[in-house]
Design brief:
- By secondary structure, the chain is mainly alpha-helical.
- The chain has a domain at 1-27 and 39-138: Serine Threonine Protein Phosphatase 5, Tetratricopeptide repeat (Alpha Horseshoe).
- The chain is 70% helix and 0% strand.
- It has 16 helices and no strands.
- It has helices at residues 2-9, 41-72, 79-103, 108-120, 124-137, 142-155, 158-171, 176-188, 190-197, 201-218, 223-232, 241-253, 258-274, 278-286, 294-308, 315-320.
- It is globular and about 75 Å long.
Length: 327
């Protein structure tokens, strides 16, 4: 159950994407105020179900944030208790979706939204069925292609994911998340992508990076997108240290909080050390004070020390440096 995984990680959720999976679809638009006098009764009913869903997720997000804060102080609910509380809160929302779709089985957006809800619960197989149904009912909806692509990207066949993402992009070429998702799946499945696109693996990596850059045109302030692009540079061979540093510097400017900013310092330290810029790497490491990053900082600090030391002497070099016979 994905909600349980979230609780175990102690994280707080942000805005939910369309399918509930990682980087799965465009963020849901803001809730619209509506009048039952201007929409059909079916649409008004659907809006009420969506409002129930949004309210439940907002409340759960609040619980997770508050429980995380309490846990850091030595209090808070146990994982099992919080998970049960979440499950109970979502139960009436699930019933509302089921009842709505029993009355309106051909409502494409209802099938799409319920698939995302089920995916959040970890019911991936059932979620895929709902998205397949949504696509059957409305083959013009790019979100359905995107959500199905996420599903195939996770469980295969991955070639199907490549095809579905491409279709979503074709139908809505201004939606950043479609480029972002396709780039991520290509990087995750490089060998399959190289076969599918009939090119070398390094070219596939560069193709994924270009998809990320296209996504940035439509979502230039997205920190996660910027970090994914920066991470992709690590797969290049030979490495391009200057380009990697530039990418992490850009990501740092988009950091949303101090922990994210310090995380980019760790990456910059790693890349600059690899480029031989040891003093600059130390400056970045000294900027990291967050306890959650201490282990990585310590490892990088040790590597810097080792890199700065002269190589150990070999037996041959020791013999060469022995004093000669007295004359």
């Amino acid at each position: 159950m994905k909600w349980l995984v979230i609780v175990l990680l102690g994280g707080a959720l942000g805005a939910r994407p369309a399918s509930g999976a990682s980087k799965s679809g465009p963020p849901a638009p803001p809730a619209l105020s509506f009048s039952t006098s201007t929409v059909s009764p079916m649409e008004a009913e659907f809006q009420r179900v969506m409002a129930l869903d949004d309210a439940a997720h907002e409340e759960i997000d609040k619980w997770i944030r508050e429980n995380g804060a309490f846990a850091r102080q030595g209090a808070g609910l146990g994982e099992a208790v919080l998970s049960l509380k979440i499950e109970q809160r979502l139960a009436p929302v699930k019933r509302a979706y089921e009842e709505f779709l029993q009355r309106h089985p051909k409502h494409a957006r209802g099938q799409l939204a319920f698939g995302s809800f089920l995916n959040d619960l970890g019911e991936e197989a059932e979620a895929r069925k709902r998205w397949e149904k949504a696509l059957e009912l409305d083959p013009t909806n790019p979100a359905a292609y995107n959500n199905l692509a996420n599903s195939y990207g996770q469980t295969g066949p991955v070639v199907r994911a490549f095809e579905l993402y491409a279709k979503a992009i074709e139908m809505n070429p201004r939606q950043a998340i479609y480029y972002h998702n396709l780039g991520s799946v290509i990087l995750l499945h490089r060998k399959e992508a190289a076969t599918h696109y009939r090119t070398a693996e390094q070219q596939v990596i560069r193709h994924a990076m270009e998809l990320y850059r296209l996504a940035q045109q439509f979502d230039p302030n997205n920190f996660q997108l910027a970090t994914d692009l920066a991470q992709a540079h690590y797969a290049l061979s030979p490495p391009d240290h200057d380009a990697t540093i530039a990418a992490w510097t850009r990501a740092q400017l988009l950091a949303r909080n101090e922990q994210e900013r310090e995380g980019t310092h760790l990456h910059l330290a790693r890349v600059k050390a690899a480029a031989g810029r040891l003093n600059e790497a130390r400056v970045h490491l000294n900027s990291v004070t967050n306890a959650a990053l201490a282990a990585v900082k310590g490892r990088l600090s040790r590597e810097l020390v080792e890199q700065a030391l002269p190589p150990p002497a070999t037996d041959d070099s020791r013999r060469r440096n022995l004093p000669g016979p007295a004359k």
